[in-house]
Design brief:
CATH architecture: Alpha-Beta Complex
Distance between the termini: 7 Å
Shape: globular
Radius of gyration: 15 Å
Helix content: 25-40%
Order of helices and strands: HHEHEHEHEEHEE
Largest sheet: 5 strands, mixed
Structural class: alpha+beta
Number of helices: 6
CATH superfamily: Toxin ADP-ribosyltransferase, Chain A, domain 1
């Protein structure tokens, strides 16, 4: 696609989203605009992003349901690097958990993001930040309830295709 970076796991639903996006020029224009905005975005810690959007939070992350992709995700984590062109993260832990409890990805340190919902009001209840890039896997722990908690530190933007 726009960054020539594969998703950190393979699944039919991701391939379908990518095929549909590639076939729609408007979607591709929007994705390019998001990547441009992300490239120009400031880097802040979660609490800085929270203050920027008037939502007190020192945490940002995303949950993912357990599934067939779990072994692929664990293999990616074992490399120490995870790349994601664009993904939605929440400043609200409960919202992040609502997307799944198989894995919980948390960003630590500063990172660029876009709080698009502050302009569009789309998904404002999710307190979503759009982020992306290359991340170092800082820590991986399993909770007593079976959630794999992954702490990621932003390293760099992804090169464009």
């Amino acid at each position: 696609m726009l960054t020539a970076t594969k998703h950190y796991f393979e699944a039919e639903f991701i391939e379908r989203y990518e095929r549909d996006a590639a076939a729609d020029p408007r979607t591709m224009q929007r994705a390019a605009a998001l990547l441009d905005a992300l490239d120009a975005a400031p880097q802040m810690h979660a609490d800085g992003w929270g203050k920027t959007v008037a939502y007190e939070s020192a945490w940002v992350g995303r949950g993912i349901e357990p599934g067939a992709q779990d072994d692929q995700i664990r293999a990616t984590l074992a490399t120490g690097i995870l790349s994601m062109p664009l993904w939605g993260l929440s400043l609200d832990r409960d919202v992040a958990r609502s997307f799944g409890t198989g894995f919980q990805f948390e960003l630590v340190g500063s990172f660029p993001a876009i709080a698009a919902w502050t302009e569009s009001e789309i998904k404002s209840s999710e307190r979503e930040l759009i982020a992306g890039g290359r991340y170092r896997v800082e820590n991986v722990n399993e909770t007593l309830t079976g959630t794999t908690v992954v702490q990621l530190r932003y390293l760099a933007a992804l090169p464009r295709a």
